[in-house]
Amino acid sequence: MAGTFAVELTPHQGAKLVNAVQAAFIASYAAPALGGGFRWDGKYTSLTGAAEGRGVAVGGDVHLGGFALSEGFRVDYPTAGSVPLSPLVMAGAVQVLGVAAAGGTSCLAGGFAGTAPIAPDGSTRQAAGLRDLFVRCDKGSWVKTIGSSGDDAAYAIAIDQATGNVYAAGQLGGVVDGVGPGVVVAGWDASGVPLPGFPRSSGSITDEARGLALAPNGKALYLVGTFASAKLGFGSTALTCQGATDAFLLKLAL
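Predicted structure:
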């Protein structure tokens, strides 16, 4: 598991994580079939200010993603221990909000503002609006951005281990090439080429996807999030909002 703590955290009895300022943390536990016991933990402290842990993924190494005041980061931990490898730090107004790993690669999703070095080769990208959505994959050495004039971000990401396809979901705060605003789902192949039919969107600026899972057979995506629009859906399926803001779960066939 991964998250954020301030001053002190006790992932298990007899040991504590201690930090003077807010930091990101990661903790590893054995599977229930193996007793579910504590294995190891770690933390990431940023020199730029309070850090937040926002995502964790396992794929060879264990990857912790998050952000601080003026950086987005990914810290890689060997699965056998808690000594981290050198962190990936993207300086600037970068927020890593989701992490995925499969097939020997890791991908990051989130948002960035201004000019930031979000590409695997360290080159920069310029945001089109208040904040742009980005997805970065290291194995294929590519980064993709989607930016309206508003506030855009990807909060979740998944990799199809069989094909290498990458899917991300989040929110668009405006319109980009006829897509948005509202819940957005985007997809690329392992080389970063957009998949047919993506990106696609539904709802309005009040709606966002916060979680994303890929079906084991790779034939569907499952989205979770919140919406306040009267209707939300893709294709023939539509949900009706019953209150001020409702939670949603949607299955999107691929």
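Summary: The mean pLDDT is 93.
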